Amino acid sequence: MRTWMLCLALVWGTTWPVAVGCTGGDGDGDGDGDGDGDGDGDGDGDGDGDGDGGDGDGDGDGDGDGDGDVEAHKAATVKAYLAPQVANDAGENAMVIAITAVVEASVQANGGVELVTTGTLTEQGAAFVYSAGPNDRLVIDWAAGADTEIFVTTLDGYFEAETVEEFLSEPHDVNLRYVRSGEGDATVTSSENGADRSASISGDLVIDGQSYTVNLTKSGSYTYDHGGNGHSYESTETMAGTVTGPDFSLVAVEEFWAFTSVFGQVVTNRIREGSTAFTAGGTDYVFDGLYIKEQTIDGFADDTTGYWDVSGDVLVGGAPVGSLALSVNDVTSDVVFVSNNGDQTVLESTNNPQD
Fold this sequence. Notes:
This protein is mainly β. It has helices at residues 67-110, 164-169; strands at 119-124, 127-131, 138-141, 148-156, 172-180, 184-193, 196-207, 210-227, 230-245, 248-263, 265-274, 277-280, 283-297, 300-301, 309-316, 319-328, 332-339, 344-351.
């Protein structure tokens, strides 16, 4: 069993949108780690997507034409576009932290001969020190902030992997509950058996200081090819489920396709499409014909004029209140929501390569 560096931070979601990130592992992983979130709408850099703060001082006369209505439509669309990703990222980050903590505890307790899923890991400087107890959970005692509690039901897989991301790209079966005060309490699962894979998250997440209940599942197929000086992988997944919170609810029905090749450069093609319905502020919405097609090279937007394609409408009562489009500037390539009055709100942003 290999030791993986324990990531020192987990952000389950603090704002709409949320930027999450945690680098685990001290090996290079030769790109394998990119596969765990492949195609799951993980637009890298959607951190400024909330841009919904306009003047909001229109007459708001309820006919859908007032400035107040425009601002409400913007805010609702941002939240609905990002909600599945926020929940998905929270589940994946929780999984990475939990598995890494179990491996660290196991290596310290018995040299990695057997898995240890109970006890306490106490952060001391740049390291963590294991001690026995409690006997029903694994606790991460951070130097700052609330403890993390991990309840493991199932944890099987390839523990000789170089990184936890590689572990999750190999056949595995994981079922655990992840709890941290102020961030959430959720059960996350992930399994891969041959070409079939599935994942889920169910429970509560705290976002912007408010609690949201999530119940999302992903299922699909995954193929991996390794040869020569690199490798490639392809995935097709369906996401379905619900996200509910204060004055907001969403029923997600989305499909994702992704293909990544790693031969010197990391080239990723992604497609996201669906017809998610959501309710905000008492208004019922639907994404009609949501379609996002992107390509990146080493994480930067590539060929935005030739490959990228963004389309779809946001409907209220069958009538569009705005549409999705691609907006490209010198710095970024953005998926934007264009309101009927022409205002643009960034939903997802990818950096362009710079000379």
